[in-house]
Design goal:
The chain is an all-alpha fold. It is built from 6 helices and no strands.
Length: 114
């Protein structure tokens, strides 16, 4: 459990709980591109529901492993510029601040993509 338990119930808490579940079940070892994309879309939808003011709280409650998985999704989302890009850049900056350069190195060198 990561984020939702510290916030109580409500839409934001559920969004964070959804994000926790999605990160824990990421199909990083899968070779099924459509499955990976469907999962990524769900992660992006969960991120969209979390207010910018809750990014720090969400990341502070994450384990380093969950942070690395989320960073993989952030980078995946940044591969194609969109309306979501400014938000993803905020998430990237906050993840790097919390988990450091080591997280970035681990994510960029990991062959298991999301």
């Amino acid at each position: 459990w990561c984020c939702a338990h510290s916030l109580g119930s409500g839409t934001r808490g559920r969004s964070m709980a959804d994000l926790d579940t999605l990160l824990a079940t990421a199909p990083a070892g899968s070779k099924d591109a459509s499955q990976k994309q469907a999962h990524a879309d769900q992660v992006f939808q969960a991120l969209d529901k979390i207010a910018d003011s809750k990014i720090d709280l969400t990341i502070d409650a994450m384990t380093p492993d969950a942070g690395d998985v989320l960073l993989k999704y952030v980078y995946k989302g940044l591969e194609t510029p969109s309306d979501r890009t400014p938000s993803l850049l905020k998430w990237q900056a906050k993840l790097a601040e919390k988990f450091g350069v080591g997280s970035i190195v681990r994510v960029l060198s990991d062959r298991k993509t999301v």
